[in-house]
Amino acid sequence: MKFDKEKFSKQLKFVTQNINISDYAEKCGISRSYLSQYIGKHRGNPPKPEILEKIADASGGKLDYEELMVTAGYLNEKHYEERKNMLKIMRHYREGNNLPEGLKDELKHKEILPDYEELLPVYEFENRIIWEDQDERDRKSNFRSHLKDYFAKKIAEKSDYAVKVKDNRFKDLGIHKNYLVAVKKCQPRSGKKVLIIIKNGEENINTIKRYYRLDNGKIHLDPSDNSESIYEESEIRVIGEIISIRGN
């Protein structure tokens, strides 16, 4: 996936057409020159995900964060389009229309992470909306509201997933049995703990690792469960970065 600087420039021009660039940059917490360089297509590398999130938040709904992540090359466009289509289908259903045959069964709540006990319903996984007869915004709001019973408000509002660890396999990372883990869906930073799926043939291994991106583009996961610790990016799927851990 490549950074589409032409499209990113158009997105920025669209959102700044009725506002001074300096004012918009200030709302984003970035410099005017930094923003202007992207508008002028002078930068070859995309902003970091956290900057894209600020740009989207400052737009007042005119720019979608996930769409910016697609433009930047962080997210797969196909998955993004599938997610948008799924939302359209759900709106279609809520308006009293019938779903296509078999789709409701496909959308029913499934066990999300077999190796973990769920703390709370996950509102989204692998770009698929978990079936609930509830507006997506309300569902996300309710999930995070419930999470405030376990984590600080700031952590709860940033979290997209929450799991309760069943055993002590992650004690080397300071995560013990029955600990609660809050996870934010994002591009992981090197050295951070992540909730991750390692693809092993037809079997997927759900685990928690410390994530390191190497200079050669490969991924080092620590601690290693076996002799294998270096992976191609295609061999893993990062669910999100762990932003808080709560013990008993």
Structure description:
About 12% of the residues have low confidence. α2 crosses α3 and α2 crosses α4. By secondary structure, this protein is α+β, with helices and mostly antiparallel strands. The termini are far apart. A hairpin with a 2-residue loop joins β6 and β7. The chain is globular, with a radius of gyration of 20 Å. It has an eight-stranded antiparallel β-sheet. It has a two-stranded antiparallel sheet with strand order 2-3. Among the domains are: 71 residues, 434 Repressor (Amino-terminal Domain), CATH 1.10.260.40; 75 residues, no CATH class. The chain contains nine helices and ten strands.
- The proportion of residues forming helix, as a percent range, comes to 25-40%
Distance between the termini: 41 Å
Radius of gyration: 20 Å
Residue-averaged pLDDT: 75
List low-confidence stretches.
106-134
Protein name: Helix-turn-helix
Pfam families: HTH_3 (PF01381)
GO molecular function, one term: DNA binding
InterPro entries: Cro/C1-type_HTH, Lambda_DNA-bd_dom_sf, LexA/Signal_pep-like_sf
